[in-house]
Amino acid sequence: MEELSLFYSPTCPYCVKVLSFMERNGIVVDLKSTMEPVNLRTLLMVGKKNQVPCLLIRGEPLYESGEIISYLTKRFQVV
């Protein structure tokens, strides 16, 4: 199974959209709140920008809530 991490901010409406989708569909990935400095540093190092939500797929960043939801829908075969 591929390694997935979601970088998010609890105050970001687009992050809430992704997190709600995941909760409704029983999708569990490693969650990394950017409120924690170590996670923010990791996001900046990997993605080169402070943009959330960011789904890290085997070390490659995927941005935009719609793109992330589309990826998760296919990856977890959500109907």
Provide an overview of this structure.
The chain has 79 residues and is an alpha+beta fold. It has a single domain, classed as 3-Layer(aba) Sandwich (Glutaredoxin), CATH 3.40.30. Helices cover 43% and strands 22% of the residues. The protein has 3 helices and 4 strands. It has helices at 13-24, 37-47, 65-75; strands at residues 4-8, 30-33, 54-57, 60-63. It has a 4-stranded mixed sheet with strand order 2-1-3-4. β1, α1 and β2 (30-33) form a beta-alpha-beta unit. α1 runs parallel beside α3 (65-75). The radius of gyration is 12 Å and the shape is globular.
The low-confidence parts are none
Major β-sheet annotation: 4 strands, mixed
The CATH architecture term is 3-Layer(aba) Sandwich
Number of strands: 4
The CATH class turns out to be Alpha Beta
Shape: globular
First-residue to last-residue Cα separation:
20 Å
Strand content: 15-25%
Q: What integer value in Å does the Rg equal?
A: 12 Å
Strand order of the largest sheet: 2-1-3-4
What's the order of the H and E elements? EHEHEEH
When the domains are counted, the total is 1
CATH fold node name: Glutaredoxin
Q: What portion of residues is helical?
A: 40-55%
- The number of helical elements comes to 3
What's the pLDDT, averaged over the residues?
Answer: 95
Could you state the CATH homologous superfamily? Glutaredoxin
Please identify the structural class as seen in this structure: alpha+beta
